[in-house]
Every structure is written in C-alpha cells, then in structure tokens.
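Appendix C reproduces, verbatim, an entry submitted by the partner laboratory led by Prof. M.T., so that reviewers can inspect both the input and the predicted structure.
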Amino acid sequence: MTSRIGGVARRLKQDHSGLALMEFAFTLPIMLGLGGYGIEVSNLALVNLKLSQVALALADNASRVGATSTLSTQQLREVDINDVLQAVRVQGEGIELTTRGRITLSSLERVRQSYDAASPAALVQRIHWQRCIGLKSGTGYDSTYGTASANAGSTAAESNKGTDLAAGMGPTGSKVNAPDNSGVMFVEINYLTKPLFGTLLMEPARVHYIASFIVRDNRDFSRIFNPSPAATGSKCNAYAA
C-alpha cells in the first residue's frame, strides 16, 4: 500500500499538465487589479482634461457675449449668461458635471461705478456679480476665492455693487487681477469624481479647476441687463443642475 501511494505521489510530482492553469489562477486577481487601476487612472486623467476644457471654454465664452447697444458698448444680459452656462451643461453631460459639481462664474472688475469716488484710489478690484450652476454645495464646492450677494450686479445701485477685494481672485501667490476700466471672467469648477469600479480601487475625489479671460469687447459694466421678456438669472443662492 505504501509503495502504491508513493508511486502516485511521484507521478503527481512529475505531472506539469495543470501548471499553467494554476499560475493563471494565482495571477488573475493581480492582473485584474492592476488593469482596473490603470483604467481608473486613465479615466481620472480624462475627467481632468474635460474639466479643464470646460473651465476655459466658459471663461472664453463669457468674455465675448453681449448685445451691442446704441452707445457702441455691449450689454451683458441674463440670457447671455444662461446661454454660456447651458453650453457647460452640454459639455459636461458625459461626466454628470452639474450633478456632481458646482460651477461659479464671477465678474472680477476694476471699473469706477457711478457711486465710486473720483479719486484713483477708488478704482478697486471687485466681484461685481456671480452666477452659478450645479447641485453640490458647501465648503469645497461653493466659491473659494470670494463671494458676492445673489443680487449683486442686478442693478446699478450701490446696494448691489458686489464685493471689493484687496488683491483679486485666485490662489495665494497667483491671484488674477482685472485691468483698469475692464473686467475678467473668472471661472471656478469643483467636481466630485465617480470611479468606474465604485470604491473598490479608488475613492471619489474632489477635482478643482479655475480659468480666466479678460473681457474682449467694450462692455457696459454698470450691471447685468435683463430686458423684457426677462430671463431667470442663475444666481448662486440656488442649487440646480
């Protein structure tokens, strides 16, 4: 009996017919994990590229839009802002941008308004108005670099002048400033990523992007115009996709 068992053991030791299958079984989880992680990293890179493009496109579009008035200046209207924000919705559909993020468009201006003093010192950096879309709210999603009231810029009155800033908008050490007698369209996007494999390989993370463009045309900076039929402004006290 012992010799028979020994013979079977020797034959099993010399049998390599199932070796490849066993090696495959051992390495498959590792290969799947590495492959899945590579896919997640690639997806995250694509999301970052998309958000960068959306931020740049929004700032660029917002710096161009407006209706030419009889004074050869362009009036920026609520409907114009809604149009450029609608473009963001379309661009971000594939990554659920307005559901999983928050987009803030700010008009940073260095323009003397009718209620400002005539002295050069009265020419300050100011968030004259802001408009927003996106469902996300709170710290890390609402504007990081300054806020203005919901009605700021909706009239030419001093009560709706917005928020004066000492040094412009943006991260410390690289703040954006509007040129004299002009403005900058400053865009901030905050977005919560959605990993392809849930939380198995990568946790959701907040991605942050900013972009800015100087206003291209001779814009009337006194207010946001809203002629009849009036449009509903995308004010930052509302959270909608």
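The beta strands are 67-68, 74-77, 101-110, 125-133, 163-165, 182-192, 206-214, 219-225. Additional entries are available on request from the coordinating office.
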